[in-house]
Amino acid sequence: MSGEIIRRIAQLEKALDPNVMAREAYSYFRDITPVRTGNAQRRTRLSGDEIRADYAYAQRLDDGWSRQAPRGMTEPTERFIRDYINKQAKG
Length: 91
Description:
mainly alpha
């Protein structure tokens, strides 16, 4: 029994590692970024644990300016992270 608990704790530590979570969040954020020319997705980068949208109209897209992402990208990504943590916790 204690071996199983130790194994599960190790799995959680790995899944909830800030670097792993940052990569998961970045991947999701980039996937939901609207695509017209591809510029927004190409110019979205992960810098450490921070997602950087390096283009002039990033705030407009995040405010829901595009019909492709009416809720922007930040709010859905935050929800994704919460769901990811809950899923990992439940095993």
